[in-house]
Design a protein that fits this description.
Layout lengths: L4 H11 L11 H24 L3 H20 L4 H28 L2 H21 L11
Helix pairs in contact: 1-2, 1-3, 2-3, 2-5, 3-4, 4-5
Subcellular location: Cytoplasm, Cytosol
Protein name: Flagellar secretion chaperone FliS
Family: Belongs to the FliS family.
Length: about 140
């Protein structure tokens, strides 16, 4: 379901500016770190909207979009991952679209919606702890 997460997600993770020891993380941990960073960034975007801080709102929403596009969407292998990979692709794409609308409208409720829909996916990924079926394992 995934293509080279080790190289692609690690470099995407570094590019989006998240500080951690990415070089020592296994592929499963990289995805966990991406989900954690996404939730943290979305929380920061929501606070920025509530405070009327437009520059930081834009910065945090753009950061969240990059995490989704470069870290979570890019490694999906739609050919081998079947329906699950397609569903994740559709969910991540939906979240990118919603975040774009949240940015345009400065809508904290949309940010909260994305947080709510991504939380079960992040929790599920954490629970498999690298022990899921082979097609779920990033390579």
């Amino acid at each position: 379901m995934f293509t080279s997460v080790s190289s692609r997600s690690a470099s995407a993770y570094k590019r989006v500016g998240i500080e951690t020891s990415v070089d020592n993380a296994d592929p499963h941990k990289l995805v966990v770190l991406l989900f954690d960073a996404l939730q943290q960034t979305l929380g920061s975007a929501r606070v920025a909207i509530q405070n009327g801080d437009i520059p930081n709102k834009c910065k945090h929403i753009n950061h969240a979009i990059r995490i989704l596009e470069e870290g979570l969407l890019a490694p999906l292998n739609l050919q081998e991952g079947g329906e699950l990979a397609q569903n994740l692709h559709d969910l991540y794409s939906y979240c990118v679209n919603r975040l774009t609308m949240a940015n345009i409208r400065s809508d904290a409720a949309v940010i909260e919606e994305v947080q709510r829909v991504m939380e079960p996916v992040a929790n599920g990924w954490k629970q498999i702890n690298g022990q899921g079926p082979a097609y779920l394992q990033p390579v």
